[in-house]
Amino acid sequence: MGREIHMFFFPFFAHGHLIPTVDMAKLFASRGVKTTIVTTPVNASFFSSTIQRSKESGIHIGVEILKFPAAEAGLPEGFESADMFPTSPDENFGVMMKFFQAVLLFQEPFEKLLQECKPDCLVADLFFPWATDAANKLGIPRLVFHGTSYFSSCVTECLRLYEPHKKVQSDSEPFVVPNLPGDIELTRSQLPDSMKQDVENDLTKILRAAKEAELKSYGVLFNSFYELEGTYADYYRNVLGRKAWHVGPVSVCNRATTDKAERGKKSAIDEDECLKWLDSKQPNSVLYICFGSLACFTSAQLKEIAMGLEASGLQFIWVVRKQNKDDDWLPEGFEKRSEGKGLIIRGWAPQILILDHEAVGGFVTHCGWNSTLEGVCAGVPMVTWPTFAEQFYNEKLVTRVLKIGVEVGARKWARLVGDFVKREAIEKAVKELMNGDEADEMRKRSKALAEAAKKSIEKGGSSDSDLHSLIEEISLRSH
Ligand code: UDP
């Protein structure tokens, strides 16, 4: 290989994008690439200790800070991350629109920075569509990072191209995604609002521009691995004609306990206390329940989860994001009755530390792509409970293609709060996952995928090869 290349990483301001990008930057840096993450002050503070630990282990990652134009977009100072959005869906939408207004204002300062530093390659998030033109002007190849699976990218594209959802009579009538392998069935109620409605706002504008920018970009970078969704990686590249590389699962680069425990935020539970609790349990006996960094259920839904869990009799770790001091969602005496049996984490959980523990035997997930992949890497089968974004597509990959999950039965896309799921459905799904007729088979398949995930990033594995060839290609181009 020639001289050291310099790559810029520009993640969107949300934990589901920031966390894998930081891992990805570490991965490229560990292969001798000079890496710089471009972000804002508050977002930088989320991963400063990760960067420090990385530096101590000999892997240097640079950080360039751009001011977040909060005031210009009518947002309070310091409001720089999607996880600061209000949790009620109506209020949330208004703030989200202002946030995307701010995102559009990054174009000028970012172009200036790009001009000054002239990196050899730019990996920029899908939400920064203007980054492609900015990079093209300077002859810098821009890679798009969507932060999702090949599978869901293929579904999105097939829905956009063939519009099967416009040909059904109702929101609940199933249709098959046309031309996509696997006969994947969905309903209109499971699709994002931006797909169903002909509305125009800053978000839909960005999404449309993102589609156009993707076609003009150098390629797309995936946090995934071939053995997991090879059919769809091939479809994306050969049928949809995109140039793409997969370098995942990137979370596996976190091997030390602190690296696993502190990704994006400090945990709300002491990591040793958490591990001690898990150490006292039998292998595969604990269910882990977490819905990512954005979803926020109503009190009524949280209560329903508590009742369903209690009725199942299973041991659990349950992460509750809702900031509700009164705990009005907790059934009376719930925590007392579940002492020793269940643990509630209020706030941020050390997710991969928990998932990777042998006591954990099942994962109730919202099917965010990072969580899904982290579940796969840990070899745990999943109860799928998609709420919004592209999570309903990832659910189909888990349950219909990989056959390592049980659907809880969420049917309706609803931003933040998800569809309402009753306690009986929750109880049934978690019991089926942990002890049902199919449980052993699902667990075997999950373990096999976890093995394949490890191999894919080892020397000569599918992700390692893609990583290597991408670095080589960029390196050759920049001479
Ligand atoms: N995460 C975590 N602790 C939490 C909640 C989330 O570490 O309490 C991490 C999780 O491991 C994953 C990311 O945050 O890496 C969430 O990304 P995902 O794509 O699953 O969902 P999103 O938050 O974007 O909906």
The end-to-end span amounts to: 11 Å
Poorly predicted regions: none
**What characterizes the major β-sheet?**
7 strands, parallel
CATH H-tier superfamily of the largest domain: Glycogen Phosphorylase B
The Cα radius of gyration reads 22 Å
- By CATH, the topology of the largest domain is Rossmann fold
Q: In which order are the strands of the major sheet placed? A: 3-2-1-4-5-8-9
The 3D shape can be described as globular
User: How many helix segments?
Assistant: 19
Percent helix range: 40-55%
CATH architecture of the largest domain: 3-Layer(aba) Sandwich
Q: Kindly estimate the percentage of residues that lie in beta strands according to DSSP.
A: 5-15%
Which ligands, by name, code or SMILES, are bound? Answer: uridine-5'-diphosphate
Keywords: Glycosyltransferase, Transferase
Family: Belongs to the UDP-glycosyltransferase family.
EC number: 2.4.1.-
Protein name: Glycosyltransferase
Question: What can you see in these coordinates?
Answer:
The structure is a single chain. The protein has about 475 residues and is of the alpha/beta class. Helix content is about 45%, strand content about 15%. It has a 7-stranded parallel β-sheet with strand order 3-2-1-4-5-8-9, with helices on both faces. About 45% of the residues are buried. The chain binds uridine-5'-diphosphate. Uridine-5'-diphosphate (UDP) binds next to helix 1, helix 14 and helix 15. This is Glycosyltransferase. It holds the Pfam family UDPGT. Keywords: Glycosyltransferase, Transferase. Belongs to the UDP-glycosyltransferase family.
